[in-house]
């Protein structure tokens, strides 16, 4: 999984007045949980652009002004309901030997047979929740849809890996090929091809 660094300043004052002053100065108040102590810090709003406004998932190195560096991952984010400015971010500290839970983006590979026949690919999940060591997690999860015919579904069981545990029930559907008005059923197509290749049956001889 990709990582990026955010330069930040540790903060001691965590009250409403101090938080409001930070936001007025273009800073985002943040908290890191999961370690021996809770760490409060702030960083310019623009520093989070490549972390927040992207479909990708990153681990983060929080480089504090006291020289401390903390490995973390974004856990929760609050936006202003009107302006969409970032109000607050929660991070979870990560360790080399402790698994983390994240939602990774899902990407299809191949061209589904059912879509080529006029069907439509519908998604139930765009992100897959998994658990594993940060060093073992990929940037995204891929699933091959080449063999999906009309009516077929791609389940989470098709994307299992030794590097992580999928945190969805086995019968969870990621995507499926649904029929449409222009769709041609695969089975009907095969039957028609078979019928065209058959020789006409010989007529029985007439009785004398």
UniProtKB/TrEMBL annotation:
Residues 100-180 form the Large ribosomal subunit protein bL25 beta domain. GO terms for cellular component: cytosolic large ribosomal subunit. InterPro entries: Rbsml_bL25/Gln-tRNA_synth_N, Ribosomal_bL25/Gln-tRNA_synth, Ribosomal_bL25_b-dom, Ribosomal_bL25_C, Ribosomal_bL25_long, Ribosomal_L25_dom, Ribosomal_uL5_bac-type. Residues 185-196 have a biased composition (Acidic residues). The keyword RNA-binding applies. One of its GO terms (biological process) is translation. Gene3D superfamilies: Ribosomal protein L25, beta domain (2.170.120.20), Ribosomal Protein L25, Chain P (2.40.240.10). Residues 197-208 have a biased composition (Low complexity). It comes from the Bacteria. Residues 182-208 are annotated as: Disordered. The keyword Ribosomal protein applies. Keywords: Ribonucleoprotein, Ribosomal protein, RNA-binding, rRNA-binding. One of its GO terms (molecular function) is 5S rRNA binding. Pfam families: Ribosomal_L25p (PF01386), Ribosomal_TL5_C (PF14693). Residues 6-91 form the Large ribosomal subunit protein bL25 L25 domain. Part of the 50S ribosomal subunit; part of the 5S rRNA/L5/L18/L25 subcomplex. Contacts the 5S rRNA. Binds to the 5S rRNA independently of L5 and L18. Belongs to the bacterial ribosomal protein bL25 family. CTC subfamily. This is one of the proteins that binds to the 5S RNA in the ribosome where it forms part of the central protuberance. This is Large ribosomal subunit protein bL25. The gene is rplY.
